[in-house]
Design goal:
heterodimer, A: mainly alpha, ABC transporter involved in vitamin B12 uptake, BtuC, two-stranded antiparallel ribbon, 2 strands, globular, B: mainly alpha
């Protein structure tokens, strides 16, 4: 019985439709021209970052505006280890995540120890990220304000560099995205995830039920920081040049969270939908209109409109459409699984 | 003794710059105190005022200081329009939704400037902007001095408006308790529109003063935005006079910090002071209002 119901579930549209989408994305990436592949990589990277941000902000409801610091720490750690000690970026990535997690813990302890919330938390996380940026601007060994240039080597998985084609980058980004999705889904259905959501819903109530909200807020910050740092390393290896102004500015923090906000905070698919919308706007206005600024004019307008019209994100629309498609698809097993 | 006089020089010019921070923060503070909205577009509106001065000077030779009389009403109208179209609909929304709306608005303004006027650093060049007054052994840049005085006068006028007039009383009543004020016959929507207008007009006037001694470029707002947050928290949220103290502290920290350390550290210094204050007394040095 259990076996057949499991097979039934695999054959229902709910399961096979996302799988088909994933396979289609993988196959399509092999045929995409370089520019569209770049757009696809950016979409996947920012989906990933949006989900990492969402783990802190979407589930615990604590809005951090300084994720660029974690991103930058990830990028700088792996790059510096690679340049100075010839450590493979794959290992550097893990170290970057550890450093970012440590800084995330500091930020978390600082912010939540003093029970900052709302506007204060936003400003404090901005300040904490700005301090890191200024430190890196002044850190001569890390290239200061000029930043670090990664030495170019022939394509290799060990060195995490690919020049003849960007397809491996796409696969790596997709692997990161699948990993973070797995982590998120596991988290949402775990005790930890319920604690997070209880903090968002009603912190005082959560506390009165005996939940150590301080501890779980810091844990959320640490998980979010470590995951964001992976994205930083990926970006460094993709662009091969990092500087405080490219991997740590305030505008990057905004870029990271805007996707999740547009898509829908506190949902699994929201950041992905948001990243698709925002990155398509960014890359295409940048490439085809060719005047700096227009992309952010559009993005800013969307932010205002979302806040006014759809404070829960566009996910409601997309979800309705998605469910309609799934409803139309036949179940291979022949019967609906509720 | 050259060092001491240089230090005094640094302190004076830092304090003068602090006056500008005080004024934009005072406008921000008024909006925050009354409406509980953080207007992240405040500094970008200031940037628009700077461009206004720059272009009118370059195209028609209008003296930047005269622009105060244009910028104040113009930005007041812009402010009431923003309040009508955007802020009014977000009054009950969660704070991050409000923040996202105003940050989005700031993005639009910033990037419209970038779109139309490119990212060049522009400066008004005229005898006034390079004039220097010498008092004793220190020389003071005249536009900075005028800007400082102008900003202080504006803040004091704002304070008098809030504490000594009927309109000010209705504003304060609204900020204390919206429902009760409405029951007492105060038109809350009207008060909010005026408050937002006044707050934005402060940014406009600060922009006029700033344009006489600072570079104008599309992202200049970001520089002032971060400082403005810090000034507001230092001076106490919702406390208009407190923003004078906050502005002077930030100006001083920045000036003395870049004198003692390297100039490139100056952005970290006031942020660290801010974080320390946040840890010790989150209501600000002079703040009463609860977090």
């Amino acid at each position: 019985m259990i076996l057949t119901s499991r097979i039934d579930r695999l054959l229902s549209p709910k399961f096979y439709f996302p799988l088909i989408l994933l396979i289609a994305a993988l196959l399509l990436s092999l045929w995409l021209p370089p520019f569209l592949l770049h757009v696809a990589i950016m979409i996947v990277l920012f989906s990933y970052l949006g989900i990492a941000w969402n783990i802190l902000c979407g589930y615990t409801g604590k809005l951090g505006w300084g994720h660029a610091a974690f991103f930058g720490i990830g990028a700088y750690t792996s790059t510096a280890l690679y340049i100075f000690y010839k450590v493979s970026p794959w290992i550097g990535m893990v170290f970057g995540a550890m450093f970012a997690a440590a800084y995330g813990a500091i930020c978390g302890v600082f912010c939540f120890r003093f029970r900052l919330g709302g506007h204060y938390l936003v400003i404090a996380t901005i300040a904490l990220a700005e301090v890191v940026r200024v430190v890196f601007i002044n850190w001569a060994d890390m290239g200061g304000a000029w930043g670090l240039l990664l030495p170019v080597v022939p394509d290799s998985w060990f060195e995490f560099q690919f020049h003849t084609t960007r397809i491996p980058y796409f696969f790596i980004a997709l692997a990161l995205l699948l990993m973070v999705l797995y982590v998120e889904i596991k988290l949402v259905n775990s005790k930890l995830g319920y604690y997070f959501i209880s903090i968002k819903d009603d912190e005082g109530m959560a506390e009165s039920l005996g939940i150590n909200t301080f501890k779980y807020k810091v844990i959320a910050m640490v998980i979010s920081a470590a995951l964001t740092a992976f994205g930083g390393t990926f970006y460094a290896q993709y662009v091969l040049y990092i500087s405080p102004e490219t991997v740590m500015p305030l505008s990057l923090s905004t870029d990271i969270l805007i996707g999740a906000v547009v898509g829908g905070m506190g949902t699994i698919a929201g950041p992905i939908i948001g990243a698709v919308i925002i990155q398509l706007i960014h890359e295409f206005t940048r490439a085809y209109i060719g005047r700096a600024g227009l992309d952010y004019v559009v993005a800013g307008t969307i932010m205002v409109l979302i806040a006014l019209l759809r404070p829960h994100g566009v996910i409601e629309w997309v979800e309705r459409m998605y469910n309609k498609i799934i409803g139309l698809l036949p179940s291979i097993a022949g019967e609906e699984i509720s | 003794m050259a060092d001491i006089s240089t230090l005094i020089q640094v302190i004076v010019s830092a304090l003068l710059l602090g006056g500008i921070y005080s004024l934009i923060a005072a406008g921000f503070n008024l909006i925050y105190g009354v409406m509980d909205i953080i207007n992240c577009a405040q500094a970008d509106l200031m940037m628009l005022a700077m461009y206004l001065c720059f272009w009118l000077f370059n195209l028609y030779g209008v003296h930047p200081l005269l622009m105060i009389f244009v910028a104040a009403p113009l930005f007041f109208i812009i402010g009431t329009l923003i309040q009508r179209l955007i802020i009014n609909r977000l009054l009950g929304a969660p704070s991050f939704i409000q923040a996202i709306a105003t940050i989005g608005l700031g993005y639009v303004l910033q990037n419209l400037a970038l779109l139309f006027w490119k990212e060049d650093y522009r400066m008004i060049y005229m005898p006034y902007t390079t004039a220097v007054t010498i008092i004793g052994s220190i020389s003071i840049s005249l536009p900075r001095l005028v800007a400082f005085m102008g900003c202080l006068i504006m803040i004091v006028m704002l304070h008098i408006l809030l504490t000594r007039t009927d309109f000010g009383r209705s504003i304060r009543a609204t900020s204390e308790n919206r429902e009760a004020a409405a029951l007492m016959g105060i038109n809350v929507k009207y008060v909010y529109a005026l408050v937002f207008g006044i707050g934005v007009a402060c940014a406009g006037i600060a922009g006029v003063f700033t344009s006489t001694f600072y570079y104008t470029y599309p992202t200049v707002g970001t520089v002032f935005l971060l400082k403005m947050f810090v000034v507001v928290v230092l001076g106490g949220c919702g406390n208009v006079l407190g923003s004078i103290a906050g502005g002077l502290i930030v100006g001083l920290a920045e000036g003395v910090g870049s004198f003692l350390l390297l100039p490139s550290w100056k952005d970290a210094i006031y942020q660290i002071i801010f974080l320390i204050v946040l840890a010790i007394k989150p209501t600000g040095i002079f703040g009463e209002k609860k977090v």
